[in-house]
Design a protein that fits this description.
Oligomer: heterodimer
Structural class of chain B: alpha/beta
Strand content of chain A: 15-25%
Distance between the termini of chain B: 54 Å
Strand content of chain B: 5-15%
Largest interface: A-B, 77 and 65 residues
Number of helices of chain B: 23
Helix content of chain B: 40-55%
Radius of gyration of chain B: 26 Å
Largest sheet of chain A: 5 strands, antiparallel
Number of strands of chain B: 17
Structural class of chain A: alpha+beta
Number of helices of chain A: 31
Radius of gyration of chain A: 45 Å
Shape of chain B: globular
Chain lengths: 803, 637
Amino acid sequence: MAFVTANWNPLGDAFYRKVELYEMGWSLKDGLRDCHVAAAPYGGPIAGHLHSLRNARSCLPGAIRCPLTTFSPIWGPQWKSGVVKQLGWTVGDDLLCVQEDGTVLVYDLFGSFKRHFSMGNELVQSHVLEAKVFHSPYGTGIALLSGTFRFILATNIEDLKLRRLPEVPGLQGAPSCWAVLSQDRQSKVLLAAGPDLYMLDTTACTPVIPPGLTPQASSIVHMAVSFSYKYLAFFTDSGHVWMGSANLKDKLGEVETKMKTPPKQMAWCRRPKGQQPSVVVMWEKNLLVAGQCQETIQYPFVDSVLVPEMDGVRIISGSHHELLQEVPAACEEIFKIASMAPGALLLEANREYEKESQKADEYLREIKEQDLLGEAVKQCVEAAGYEHEPETQKMLLRAASFGKCFLSNFRPELFVHMCRDLRVLNAVRDYTVGIPLTLPHKQQSVSRVLKHWACCKVQQKEEADEVIARAISVKLGETAGISYSDIAAKAYECGRTELAIKLLEFEPRSGEQVPLLLKMKRSQLALSKAIESGDTDLVYTVVTYLKNEMNRGDFFMTLRNQPVALSLYRQFCKHQEPETLKDLFNQDDDHQELGNFYVRASYQEGKLETRVSLLQSAVDEYNKAKNEFAAKATEEEIRLLRFQRRVEEEKGERVLGCSLHDTLHCLLTLGLHKQAEQLYKDFRVPDKRYWWLKLTALAEKEDWEELEKFAKSKKSPIGYLPFVEVCVKHLNKYEAKKYVSKVTPEQKVKAHLAVGDLEGAAEAAIERRSEGEVSLVLSRCSATTDRTIVDRLNRARAAAAKK
Amino acid sequence: MAAHLSYGRVNLNILREAARKDLREFLDKCAGSKAIVWDEYLTGPFGLIAQYSLLKEHEVEKMFTLKGGRLPAAEVKNIIFFVRPRLELMDIIAENVISEDKMRSPRDFHILFVPRRSLLCEQRLKERGVLGSFINVDEYILDLIPYDGDLLSMESEGAFRECYLENDQTSLYHTAKGLMTLQALYGTIPQIFGKGECARHVANMMLRMKREFAGCQTQVLPVFDTLLLLDRNVDLLTPLATQLTYEGLIDEIYGINNGYVKLPPEKFAQKKQGEGEKDLPTEPKKLQLNSAEELYAEIRDKNFNAVGAALSKKAKIISAAFEERHNAKTVGEIKQFVSQLPHMQAARTSLANHTSIAELIKDITSRQKIPPPLHPGLYLTLLHFSIIVVLCCISCVPPYVSASEAFFDNLTVEQEFMTGVDTDKVNTYIEDCIAQKDPLIKILRLVCMQSVCNNGLKQKVLDYYKREILQTYGYEHILTLNNLEKTGLLKLQTSTRNNYPTIRKTLKLWMEDANEQNPNDISYVYSGYAPLSVRLTQLLARPGWRSIEEVLKMLPGPHFEERQQLPAGLHKKRQQGENRTTLVFFLGGVTYAEIAALRFLSQMEDGGTEYVIATTKLINGTTWIKSLMDRLEEPPF
C-alpha cells in the first residue's frame, strides 16, 4: 500500500506507470508468436487467430477467438475459410477477418457469423498483402495493400464504397511501412517507400517531408498514428524516433534509441491533458518508452501486442495483460514523494486520524490555512478514479470523505458519482468479466455499453416482449445518447416485430422511429410518427411509400384522416401529378378547388374549344360549391373568349386572351365603337370605368373631335377633371382648356394648375377661400415671374387671416 | 469582414462563423479542384454567409447555375450541387449527371442540400438511377442567416404562402430547427411567448425537440431572456401599409434583396467637369445596405421626413472635418489628419450615395402640400474634391399627374382606412385606380387593407371589387383572389360587428400627433399608424399581455406562454438596470418599418428591453401580395 509509486518511472517532468491488469487464462504454448491478435479499444474484447506453420501448410489454420478478453477464452470452431491476413474490431464490436482474397468475414461478439463482403474482385488475383482496420468519424474502415501495390480503401464498411487510391509513382515493391490517417474528415494513407514519404488521398499522391527529421536517417521503417489521429511517429533505420503532428507541420521531438532493428510494433501513449506524450516501441525482447523530452524508459519484456487506448497503451502477452500510461496529474500530486499538494496533505491527515494521532489536526490546519480544502477533496476524489486497486481507491475516498466533514457547502455530487462509477468499473474489471475499462473510457462509453446490453437483451427468446421492453426502459431511462431505434432495429432483426414497436415507443425522437416502422410495414403508425415529428420531408417519404403500397382507395382514405399529410400530398400532386390532384378533390367533394383546378387547366390548353369546355366544367363545380360569384365570373370569361374569337375572325384583330378592359381599349382605339358599346352593355361595365376607358383610348388615338363629342354626349359620371388631366398627359393643353370650365368648383384649382393657368388657379382659390389651395397655388408660383399673382394671393391670405 | 454583426446586443457573428466553418468543412471533404452548380435561389442567401473569396480559398474554380442538359466543361475534379431539396431540381441534376461526357476523365459528384437533406429527394435520385454517382450526399444546415447586427432571416420567400395558404409547415419545421441551433449557441431561452396557430406549432416542436435532445443540454449562459413568436396573420394590416421610414421606402420603391438594392444609375454618375453626359452608366447601381455603414445605420430607421435634416447635419460635420486640414500646422497634425482621411472619404461617399437615394425617393413621395421634408436649396459644396452634393432640387415642376401625386393620394386613402373612415363603402380612389389600370398589386394592397380594417367587406362591396379586378386585369386572377380569401386578407363580413375600431383604440394603433422628427412613439414609422405586431411586443414587455386579454381574443389564433427549464447554475443574475433581451420571431415575414419600430423600442431610455428580430423573410406589401398570386400564363394560340 505504501508503495503506490513502486511501479512509477520518471520520464521528463512526468511519471509513467505499468499496471498489471490480469494474468491471462489462455493456454498458448508458444505465446502469441504465431497469432494474429486484435483487441478492440476501450478495454474491448480480444481476438486471436492462430496460423502456425504446420497449419498454414495444410491451408486450414485453426482459429481461436476469445472475446471478452483474458480469463476464459471462448474457443471458436475450426477455421475452414481462406487465409486470414488481418483481424480487427468494428466500433460496434463486430469482428472483421480480412482474408487474402479480399473477402471480409464479419462475426459478432460471440463468434457467430454475420455476413461477408468483398473488397474488390481484383484481389482474388492479386491478393491482399497487408490490411489495416481503422476507425474514422464515419465508422469502421478497412485499408488494403494489394499484390500490385495499390491501396484500396473503404471508410465505412456499413456503407461500403471502395476507393482505389492513385498509384504511387515508382513503387516497385511493398512499402516499408504505412498508416491510415484521418484528416479533415477524410481518410488518407501515409506510406514510406525507401527514403521517400507519400501522402495518398482519393485524388492525388503527394510527396511529403517530415520537418526536422534527422539527416542520419535514410529511410523510415515503422510508423504509428495516435489514437486521436492527431500525432504521428516514425522509426528510422538510424534508430531515431521522430514525433510530430499528423499534418506533418510541426515536430514534437526526436529520440535516439540506439536500436537499429526495425521494431515489431509501435504505439502512441498519451492521455487527455497529459504533459508528456510518448511513443512505445516494441521489439522481440524489449519495450521502450520514448518521451518528447528525449528521455526513455526501458522495460524487460516478453513477446506481446500493443493496443493503443485513449489514455495509454494496453500490453497483451501470452501470460499477462498490462496497462502502460502516464501517471495522471491528480495521482502524481498526491503520491509523489514529499508532495505538499493539498490532496497529499489531506491523505496524510486522514492517515493520522485513523491512527488517532493529533497530527491529523496539524495537517488539516495547514490545508485550511491556505483555503485549499475543497481543492484537496477534489484531488482525492479524482485520483481515486484513476487507481485500479480497490484498496487505494478506498484510501483516497476515505480521505476525501474525511476532508468533506470540514467543508460546509461542498456539493456532494462529485463524491457520489465517483463512488458509483468506481463500483461499476470495479465490477466490470473483475477477472470473471475481464473488461479493463478505465474511467475516461467509461465516461465515453456508458451509453455504448448500455446499448450493447439492450441489444443482447432483445435476443433472449424466452422472455416476453412486455418484460423485455420494460426491463430495457427501466435500465436505460433517458440516458443521453441512447438510441432506442437502434435497439428496436436489433429486435426486428431477430424477428421480434412486436418488441421492436414497443421499444420504439420509448424513442423520444419520432423522426428516428419512422424508417424502422416502414421497414416493419407499420406504415400507418409511421405516418402518424412522421407527422408528430414535424419534419415534412419524413411525412412525404411515408406518403410516397404508402402510395406504392396501398391501393388508391385505401391510400386516399388514410390521407383523409391525416390533414397534414393530405395537404402535403396535394402540394406534391400540384407539381408532379395534376390528375391525381383532381381525384383527391373529387373524393373530398371539394367543388371549389375542383373549379380552381379546371380554371388552372384551361390556361394550359391551347385550343379554344377545349378551353371553353374546361371552363364550363369549372362553372359547374363552382355552382356545386355554391360560389355564385365565381360561377358567374367564369361564365363571363367564356362569353368574352367567344366574343374575342368573333372579333378576330371578323376584324382580324388579335384580342384573344386579353382582359375585358384591354379588349374594350383595343376596340375603342381601333374605332370599333359599336362592338365596344355592345361589350359595355353585355358585361355591365360600370359607367365610370367605361368613361375612363373611352377617354384614355380616344386621347391615346388623339381623336380630339370624337373626344369632345363624347364629353358632350351626356353628363360625365367621372366629372371633367380627368378630361383635363388626360389631355395634358397627351401634351394637348389646348384641348385640355376646353374642359376646365366644366370642372366642378372643388376641382377648379387643380384643373387650372394642370393646364398651367396660374392666374385662373389663383382666382379660383381666392374665390373658394381655401387656405390649403391658396398655398398650393403659391407653391407653384415663382417669386420673380409671377410677382402680381403672388401678391394677390398673399393679400387674400392676409384678409382671410384677419377674419 | 462582418464586424457589424458583432456590435449588437447579441453577437450574431458567432452564428455566421459557425455557418462558415460548416461550409469550409464540407468543401474540404471534396478534395481537389471543384465547380459549384448553384440552385439560383440560394446564391443570395449564401452571399450573406460567404463571399466568393472563401470558396476560392477552398479550390472552387468555377460556378454554374443549375439548368437542364449537359454540364458545362470544366477541368475540375469535383462537381458540387448546392440545392434546395426540391423534386424538380432533382430531375435537373439527374439529367446533368446522366448526360455527363463519358469520354472525358471522370468527375466526382457531390450534392449539398440546403437547409436540410431530404429522403424524398434522395429517393427521386435513386429512381433516376444516379444516387450512386454521388460520393457525398450531405446537408448544409442554414436556417437563420445573420442579416444584420440585430436581425436574422431565413430568406424563405414562400413561407407565408406555404403556411397559411397551402398548409405546408415545412418552413415552420425549419424555424424550430433554426431556433434550436440558436439555443445551442446562445443558451436555452427560458421564456417563450406566442400568438397564432403557427407560433403554437413552432413552440410545440421546439419543446419536443428539446425533449429529444434531453441530456445533451448546452451549458451556455442564456443570452436571450424571452422569445416571442408572432404569426403574420395576427397582424395582416401592417405589411399592407406603405412604410415611411427611409429603409422601408427604399424597399417599397426599389426592393431590397438579400441586403442589396439596385438603383437607377443616373443620379450616381460621377459628374466631372468638362465631361458631357456621354458616358452615363446604364447598369443599375448595386449597393449593400447594412449597419456596417455608419451613416446608414443612423438614418435607416428615421421617418423619411427626418432624413433630410440628418443628411444635412452630417454634411456639415464632414465638410467641417475636411476644413480641419487648414488648421493642421505641424507635421504631427498633418499626419493625424491624413490618417483619418480614408474614414472621412468613406463617409463622404456614403453621404453622396444616400443623398442621391433620398433625392430619388423624394421625387416619388414629396408633394408641396406636405411640408418639404428636405431643407430646400441646401447646397453643400466640397470644392476641393470637386464633388457637388446637391441635397435637394425642387426647381423642376413635376408633370401634372406625377408619381408624387399618386403616392400622396394612395397614402391618404391608406390612412383613411387605418383610421376607419368609410371602410364599408366602395372607395372612389380605388375605383379610379382600377379604371386607369394601375398596377394590380397596388389595387390588391388597398382592397385587402380596406377589408382588414373593416373586418371583412359586405358581399356587395366585395363582389364589386372582385368583378372590377377580373374585368380589368383578366379572369385568371380569380385564383389569386381565391388565395387572398383563403389567407383572410380579403374576406366577407360575417358578423355585423367590426372589431377593428376596438382593436385600434385599445392598442392605440393610430396616434394623431405622430412626431416624425423626434419620435416619442413607434407610430412614427407609418406617420401615425403604430404597427399592431410591434404594439403587441411592446405591451408584452410592459405591462404584460394580461392587460389586453380581450383584444388578444379578437386576433386569430391562440396566445400562450411556455417556460423552459434551465440547467442548474445557468440562471442569470440580472444587474440593476440591465436590460432584458427579447428575440421576436415573425413567422411569415416582417417589414423594415416594423424592425425600425422595434429598434426604436430598444433605444428608449426607460424601455428595459432590447430586441433582436428574426423572421422567415423580409417583406413589404408588394412582395408579400406577389407571393400569394397565382400566375397563369396565357397559352400561346
